[in-house]
Amino acid sequence: MEFFKCIDKGPGLKRLFIGGVHGKEGLSTINAIKKISENDVKDGTLVIYNCDESRYISTLNPLYYQSTVGKEILYLINHYQPDMYIELHCYKPESYPALTSIDRIKRVGVPPLIELEKGVLIGSVSPQIRTKIFKKEDICITLEMPCSPSPETLNIYVNFLKVLASAKNRFDLENKVTKIYPEQVETSQKYAHIIFGEYPPF
Ligand SMILES: [Zn+2]
Q1: Is 107 in contact with 141 (CB distance < 8 Å)?
Q2: How distant, in Å, are the alpha carbons of 31, 55, 62, 65, 103 from that of 202?
Q3: pTM
Q4: Second label for 196, Cα 20 to 30 Å away, from 60, 112, 181, 202?
Q5: Rounded distance from Cα 11 to ligand 1 centre (Å)
Q6: Can you tell me the distance from the alpha carbon of 44 to that of 8, in angstroms, rounded to the nearest whole number?
């Protein structure tokens, strides 16, 4: 389900949130995206885009960025030059163990996703873009929830998006998230170090 919105509150962080990057995920992520309002952004800009349904190709696969939707995303990143880039995904419940187990590093070359609460998972974005397109200091986060989530899970997911939308910069974001999810922030820093060396956590 295609959706586009731009919230402009003047100078500040440039944010880009993209939902439903592959398969039918957009049908679930649109429900979270629609709950972000003008008031959630205090300064800077937020561009929100939810993609139409597309063929499922993993974003870890280099071919993804040669697909129509992959190219669309590269265009949006290039056009808006975000300091904060958030991908909204959803997963089938049976994928939970594969997404969160430590051997994900060996299997697909990226660290496991970290659970915030109630099946809401956080991680970095595909190395295909994280290390090739974004700067070291940019904030890049993948946020996953089960597809067709319970109202409780959707609420946690939306609240985290609102924290991201209101964060002024990386420091402010780390402070805010550490207050709510201290253990998860610590784990993410550990994973980032394994994969990226001195790279920032997200
Ligand atoms: Zn996905």
Answers
A1: no
A2: 24, 27, 20, 20, 19
A3: 0.94
A4: 181
A5: 31
A6: 6
Catalogue all structural domains in the chain, each as residue range(s) with its CATH number.
Answer: 3-196 (3.40.630)
DSSP string covering 1-69: --EEEEEEESSS-EEEEEE--STTTHHHHHHHHTT--GGG--SEEEEEEEPPP-----TTSGGGGGSHH
Residue 91 Cα, ligand 1 centroid: separation in angstroms? 6
- Residues 173, 15 contacting (CB under 8 angstroms): no
Q: Using DSSP bridges, classify how beta strands 44-50 and 3-9 pair: parallel, antiparallel or unpaired.
A: antiparallel
Nearby residues for ligand 1 (ion, Cβ within 5 Å): 89
Measured in Å, residue 147 CA sits from the centre of ligand 1 at 10
Q: Which two tokens stand for residue 122?
A: 């956080």
pLDDT for res 136 = 85
Nearest partner of 132 among 186, 64, 194, judged by Cα: 64
Pairing mode, if any, of strands 139-146 and 120-123? antiparallel
Q: What is the pLDDT of residues 2-61, one digit of tens each?
A: 899 999 999 999 999 999 999 999 999 999 999 999 999 999 999 999 999 999 999 999
Give me 69's structure tokens. 């939707």
| Distance of alpha carbon 41 from alpha carbon 88, whole angstroms | 18
